[in-house]
TrEMBL record:
Keyword Transcription regulation: yes
InterPro entries attached to this UniProt entry: HTH_MarR-typ, MarR/SlyA-like, Tscrpt_reg_MarR-type_CS, WH-like_DNA-bd_sf, WH_DNA-bd_sf
Lineage, highest ranks first: Bacteria, Bacillati, Actinomycetota, Actinomycetes, Kitasatosporales
Annotated GO MF terms: DNA binding; DNA-binding transcription factor activity
GO-annotated biological processes: response to stress
Protein name: HTH-type transcriptional regulator PecS
Domain HTH marR-type: start-end pairs: 23-158
UniProt keyword terms in alphabetical order: DNA-binding, Transcription, Transcription regulation
Length: 165
């Protein structure tokens, strides 16, 4: 079965036989898959009245476990945004009733951000919808193929994840 990347690679091999275009065979497919995944994510988040960044913050809190709270600094680390951006995001989520700010009992000057019951509901529902979409995207692969692909992608992404930005 041929795909658009096969046609693109064949055209480059014809037009630029002096270049090794083999990286396109993998990375162009990864790029195209990322666009399909991005569309699926946006659709799911819209169905749950969330923006992508809202999902990121809510699910970081949800993954923290009971009582579903983190410091703004911990949220910064998990979502890779600046402190000013995080402050703005917390403000907007609090205004929607999805999170609340609480005093940090271990630091009189600090605050904690806690997921509200509504925020937990939104995070859980959006995650379930997202996983349904992602399963559909991976539907053409067997379980062993998915595991193999996950291992190969981990090998490619680990050096980036372990390098300071």
């Amino acid at each position: 079965m041929k795909d658009e990347v096969d046609r693109l690679v064949a055209a480059w091999r014809r037009e630029r036989p002096d270049l090794d275009v083999e990286p396109l065979e993998v990375l162009s497919r990864v790029s195209r898959l990322a666009r399909h995944l991005d569309r699926a994510r946006r659709q799911v988040f819209a169905e749950h009245e969330l923006e992508s960044w809202e999902f990121d913050v809510l699910t970081a809190l949800r993954r923290a476990g009971t009582p579903y709270q983190l410091s703004p600094g911990a949220l910064l680390t998990q979502t890779l945004v600046t402190s000013g951006t995080m402050t703005n995001r917390i403000d907007r989520l609090a205004k929607k009733g999805l999170v609340e700010r609480l005093p940090d009992p271990s630091d009189r000057r600090g605050v904690l951000v806690r997921l509200t019951p509504s925020g937990r509901h939104h995070a859980d529902a959006a995650l379930a919808g997202l996983l349904d979409q992602e399963r559909a995207i991976l539907n053409g692969l067997s379980a062993p193929e998915r595991q193999n692909l996950a291992t190969l992608l981990r090998t490619l992404t680990a050096p980036f994840d372990n390098t300071p930005a």
